[in-house]
Design a protein that fits this description.
Largest sheet: 7 strands, parallel
Helix content: 25-40%
Radius of gyration: 22 Å
Number of domains: 2
Number of helices: 12
CATH superfamily of the largest domain: Glycogen Phosphorylase B
CATH topology of the largest domain: Rossmann fold
Distance between the termini: 27 Å
């Protein structure tokens, strides 16, 4: 019986009650961390001992944890105090350390936990290849979608389209998630422009909040995208939903005719926005992976186009608009592939990961996961 506690930033919020009467529910959320500096290593030891956990599992992204390197040195510290440590890399980007810090040092800081943790997880094939052959106990476990897949009846779909001002004569492109340069927002605007110039009644539904807080350049990029929309006379064809509850995000994805995610670095299983599109059966146009992505096949599961090629993206969207059989096949295949990444499957892989160390510790009673903020 695995019991999970999540130690996270004070900005995090518990989304549901933590128990009924005297019976706790899991995961238990502890938004107790004000700063992820050097003292956090000892504080997490104290937390783990107080809660009787067997594993500390860090969910790591370079831009999280205040970009402080303390978390990268923590696995060595924790293991010397008798705790087992698992480490999930959500990316292998190098952090900013200090002025003139060289690439070798920054890479060393990023990869150090891979050599000091008991178990190491990556979420995609590109990161696995970067560490393969150098790291023992390395596993690839793709992330699941934080947006649950929903299915709409025809009447429900029409109602959701009408909510945003679309009728059956509109072809609706969707974009999901925060805007940042790596997600190809400017290329998406140009794609919409080319479709409209070709005489298509195309519209764009921007689903979710406009920008996130992890990168201060996001707001500047948003302004670039908004300026491009206005300059091309597309303001009346672009709708912004703003923040939506998860179930409404799923409904909005279902209401669109195509999800267009033009990542500048190519499609990857680390992209939660892509996973949400698969889970909700979207006909997806996205960019050609820059590393092997055997889970998705071009033309069967999604349509791939080269990054920064809006003319190719527009042509792919036009294929979906003109071929109902292709559109339906992509939707069916998206849902089928998403079953590889359900949270039940993810959980089973993690249980196997912990269990692989049972020769050294026979039982696993609890797990404390650390997260670097409300993400």
């Amino acid at each position: 019986n695995l019991q999970v506690s999540v130690l996270t930033d004070t900005r995090a919020r518990q989304s549901s009650p933590q128990g009924c009467g005297n019976l706790p529910t899991y995961p238990q959320i502890y938004p107790q961390v004000h700063h992820w500096g050097w003292p956090i290593m000892g504080k997490i030891v104290a937390f783990a001992q107080a809660h009787g956990v067997d594993w500390i599992h860090v969910q790591y992204q370079t831009a999280a944890y205040g970009m402080h390197p303390a978390i990268n040195f923590a696995p060595w510290f924790w293991r010397r105090r008798g705790l087992r440590v698992a480490w999930t890399y959500h990316d292998l980007l190098v952090p900013y350390l200090f002025p003139k810090a060289g690439g070798r040092l920054r890479r060393w800081v990023t990869e150090r936990p891979a050599f000091t943790a008991d178990r190491v997880v990556v979420t995609n094939e590109a990161d696995r290849l970067q560490l393969a052959g150098r790291i023992p106990h390395l596993a690839k476990i793709p992330i699941g979608s934080n947006i649950q897949g929903v299915r709409l009846t025809l009447a429900e779909r029409q109602a959701h389209r009408a909510r945003w001002g679309y009728d059956d004569g509109c072809f609706v492109l969707a974009y999901f998630g925060f805007l940042n340069r790596s997600k190809g927002g400017l290329a998406l605007v140009e794609t919409l422009h080319r479709l409209v110039e070709a005489g298509r009644n195309a519209h764009l539904l921007m689903i979710g909040e406009r920008v996130g807080a992890s990168d201060p350049t996001n707001f500047a990029y948003l302004q670039e995208v908004e300026a491009a929309i206005q300059a091309r006379g597309l303001s009346a064809r672009v709708r912004w939903t703003g923040r939506l509850p998860a179930e409404e995000v799923g409904a909005a994805l279902n209401a669109a005719d195509a999800l267009v995610m033009l990542y500048t670095d190519g499609a990857s299983l680390r992209r939660g926005t892509l996973m949400a599109g698969l889970a909700n059966g979207c006909a997806i146009v996205t960019t050609t992976p820059q590393a092997p992505l055997p889970e998705l096949e071009d033309g069967r599961d999604v349509l791939f186009v080269e990054p920064d090629r809006p003319e190719a993206a527009a042509a792919a969207v036009a294929r979906i608009a003109d071929d109902p059989l292709l559109a339906e096949r992509l939707r069916v295949q998206a849902r089928a592939r998403s079953r590889l990444f359900t949270w039940d499957v993810v959980a089973a892989h993690h249980l196997a990961l912990y269990g692989s160390a049972e020769a050294q510790r026979p039982t696993v009673n609890g797990d404390v996961s650390t997260q670097g903020g409300a993400r």
